[in-house]
Specification:
- The complex is a heterodimer.
- In chain A, the strands form 5 sheets. In chain A, strands 6-5-10-7-8-9 form a 6-stranded mixed beta sheet.
- In chain A, helix 2 (13-24) packs across helix 20 (460-477), helix 20 (460-477) packs across helix 22 and helix 20 crosses helix 24.
- Helices cover 41% and strands 14% of the residues of chain A.
- By secondary structure, chain A is of the alpha+beta class.
- Chain A is globular.
- In chain A, strand 15 and strand 16 form a beta hairpin.
- The longest helix of chain B is centred in the N-terminal third of the chain and has 11 residues, at 18-28.
- Chain B has a two-stranded antiparallel sheet. A two-stranded antiparallel sheet of chain B has the order 3-4.
- The N and C termini of chain B lie close together (10 Å).
- Chain B is globular.
- The chains are: A alpha+beta, B alpha+beta.
- Strand 11 (187-188) of chain A pairs antiparallel with strand 2 (30-31) of chain B.
């Protein structure tokens, strides 16, 4: 379908998708209903300029019960671009397993029972065709998505993910195993001189300056030692904020012991995806009475978030053990971040006697235990058969309501936290962000500015609003979050202009705000109430580099935030608001 | 400005397609993975580096030998030159099949081969030192 109006009004990406979600998803729809839509979009700059490498998926999240928003790199965005599409809307469901195959104008839904039950890497290898002079992408779910685990993901081109909020399970509910796209068309440059000059300028900034150095060098794994030194590395279910084994699991040690090669998303010259070489033993020793060397190699992407959630947050420091857990989640199609949060919750629950070993399948998890029990738990989560794990598969928030341990279920808005104990910015940011992610509004980064004295706690609320509104523009172009320092407001305006889109900074800010309002309206439509959201006790008492969290300060920041949003025209408070007094106290 | 360009370190390729898009921008003023003189083919297991392919400017090139219409001619210094009117009658595209290095494709619109014109943009835009290139003298 042609929707020029949407791209004109909302640029592309999350902007366009935010309106489509409101149009296509019936209010209060069951996320697993055949009518529940999956909307995946790209933007006008996709494939044309450096770091315009992402696509965004919007759906109703079975994990949070409202907005599902997930971004992925790899080749998916470019495959869509060079097939001539601005996006996909997927509705309906199959009775038997199927794939969607798109080759330029040709769109087919093909039976694929042969792939059902396979891990993500085998599926991708089976579907992927040995072709060049085109862009190919394969996005697939694993067994976890097939079993409709609410935090299952979609693996894109082996090492990339539509990671969070359970898109995998929505695929699974439609019996959709994979989407394969092959794009062989091109995009004409209406003003080749302007576009080429713009490309050259941007490419130089990305490749020759230090702005992207961190991502290219160690990648985000470099965060481990930085955060440990700051005292903001979540350890053992956010109990501590420094890990005694940080050096062992650091990006530096991974680079030394595990690193094999880098890859990058299409149209990005940075190569932030660092692949570790995992040697997998496949034949027991003394086979046929002899000892045999029998190992195979698997390449596993390692990034900060899976490293913290399956590493320090479980008390595990051994890089090989962490890589094995990441690989297990990847092949089964489970969000590594949420899985780590779940495993650490189980471990603390058993430690505190909230759960019994018998209740959880006779498994006794211990902090720092590298293998065995956690691996088995991951398998149980993916299969969702055992009643305890079946409940967990609905989400940690629902499981902790049933079993207890809400105090230390570290989720906000139903979603697990990114790995920072930096302060109020990160916690409130994750709570108020439309998709409950640190990438919604970079709360962790203003915490660091407060620590260095550049900002104060009272700057947090405005920062979160301005950041999230602006990032909605970033996510409509669609630029990768890592390139946000390249695509400042001025550069964004210049870049859009070079392909004939003329927008001022005021217009962009207004669009960004409207996109947030669309997303938030959808959340409210589905029952989200910011004031009723629970902040777990563990976070209300969190120790941070600035000192212990004070719940009253959290309330104050939240009230400031709500006030700013309401001044924008968004209605957040119900009429009987507990925060009313705080709001009127505040200037 | 013309360059001698060689694919020197294919193992360094990160699969960003900067070279492919630089080529299509230069030759066709478009961003088009199907209209390019340089190619990236990914290893399906992703355990090896992608294969990067660019015309090797052979002396005695097999593509020119195979051309039945005298449209592709070998140049004395290596490489080929194309005579488009003679080429456009072709229906067999023997040149593409003949190249054992798989370096030749047809422009899908005009059905004539896309030739590298030694502009050097692929090498200039590669962020990971896959190509070696130097200005051609004379």
């Amino acid at each position: 379908m042609e929707r020029k109006d949407l791209f004109q009004k909302y640029i592309g990406g999350v902007g366009v998708a935010s309106k489509l979600l409101l149009e296509e998803a019936k209010p209060k729809i069951d996320p697993f209903s055949p009518d529940a839509p999956i909307i995946i979009t790209i933007g006008p700059l996709t494939g044309i300029f450096p770091c315009m490498s992402k696509s965004v998926a919007l759906f109703k999240s079975p994990l949070t019960g409202n907005l599902g928003e997930s971004h992925a790199g790899g080749q998916f965005a470019n495959a869509l671009r060079f097939s001539g599409y601005g996006g996909l809307i997927i509705k309906g469901a199959g009775k038997t397993p199927q794939i969607i195959k798109i080759q330029d104008n040709q769109v087919d839904i093909l039976p694929a029972s042969s792939l059902w039950g396979l891990g993500t890497s085998t599926t991708e290898r089976s579907l992927s065709e040995p072709i060049r002079d085109c862009i190919q992408s394969v996005a697939t779910i694993g067994p976890a998505g097939e079993n409709m685990v609410a935090f299952s993901n979609v693996i894109v081109d082996r090492h990339h993910h539509f990671g969070r909020l359970g898109l995998g399970s929505v695929f699974g509910s439609k019996k959709l195993k994979a989407i394969q796209i092959i794009g062989t068309s091109g995009v004409e440059l209406n003003d080749p001189k302007a576009a080429k000059e713009m490309y050259e300028q941007l490419n130089n900034e990305v490749v020759t300056t230090d702005k992207m150095y961190k991502y290219h060098h160690l990648g985000t794994s470099g965060n481990i030692l930085d955060l440990n030194e700051l005292g903001a590395l979540p350890t053992r279910n956010f109990k501590e904020r420094r890990f005694e084994k940080a050096a062992e699991m650091s990006g530096e040690n991974f680079a030394e012991k595990m690193f094999r090669r880098k890859v990058t998303c299409d149209s990005c010259p940075v190569a932030c995806i660092h692949l570790a070489s995992l040697r997998v033993k496949f034949a027991p020793e003394h086979e046929r009475g002899r000892e045999e060397i029998a190992r195979e190699e698997v390449l596993v992407p390692y990034n900060y978030e899976p490293m913290y959630s399956l590493g320090s947050n479980l008390g595990i420091g051994n890089p090989e053990a962490i890589t094995r857990l990441i690989q297990r989640c990847g092949d089964l199609g489970l969000d590594a971040m949420m899985t780590g949060t779940v495993l650490s919750w189980i471990t603390e629950a058993v430690e505190k006697g909230v759960l019994s070993v018998n209740q959880i399948g006779d498994l006794n998890p211990k902090w720092g235990d590298p293998e065995g029990v956690f691996t088995e738990m991951i398998d149980n989560l993916a299969s969702a058969k055992h009643p305890f794990y079946a409940k967990l598969a609905q989400g940690l928030n629902r499981a902790s309501e049933k079993f207890g341990g809400i105090d230390f279920a570290v989720v906000l808005g139903g979603n697990g936290l990114a790995g920072y104990t930096t302060g109020y910015g990160h916690i409130i940011g994750t709570l108020v962000g439309a998709r409950h992610s640190h990438l919604s509004n970079s709360g962790y980064s203003i915490d660091q500015k407060i620590l260095s004295g550049q900002k104060t706690i009272d700057d947090i609320a405005m920062f979160l609003v301005e950041q999230e509104n602006w990032l909605n523009i970033t996510y409509s172009l669609i630029a990768c979050y890592f390139s946000r320092s390249i695509y400042s407001a001025d550069t964004t305006i210049q870049t859009l202009k070079s392909i004939g889109i003329n927008l001022t900074e005021e217009e962009l800010k207004e669009i960004g705000k409207n996109i947030f309002h669309n997303l938030y309206t959808y959340k409210q439509q589905e029952g989200f109430d910011l004031e009723k959201e629970i902040i777990p006790k563990k976070l209300k008492e969190l120790d941070t580099p600035l000192g212990k969290i004070d719940p009253k300060v959290m309330d104050r920041i939240l009230a400031q935030y709500i006030k700013i949003r309401e001044r924008e025209g968004l209605k957040i408070r119900k009429d009987s608001s507990v925060l009313k007094d705080l709001l009127f106290q505040d200037k | 400005m013309q360059y001698i360009i060689k694919v020197k370190h294919s193992e360094r390729c990160i699969s960003c397609y900067s070279c492919v898009f630089a080529c299509s921008r230069h030759l066709f003023n478009s961003v088009d993975p199907s209209r390019t003189a340089v190619f990236i083919e990914s290893d399906r297991t992703a355990s090896k580096a992608p294969i990067v392919t660019l015309c090797r400017f052979c002396k005695d090139p097999e593509c020119a030998i195979a051309c039945p219409h005298d449209a592709l001619r070998a140049l004395p210094e290596g490489g080929i030159t194309l005579n488009p009117p003679k080429c456009s009658v072709c229906t067999t595209y023997d040149c593409v099949k003949a190249c054992q290095y798989n370096a030749l494709i047809l422009d899908k619109n005009t059905k004539i081969p896309i030739l590298c014109d030694k502009c050097g943009d692929c090498a200039k835009y590669c962020p990971h030192s896959v190509f070696w290139y130097t200005e051609e003298s004379g």
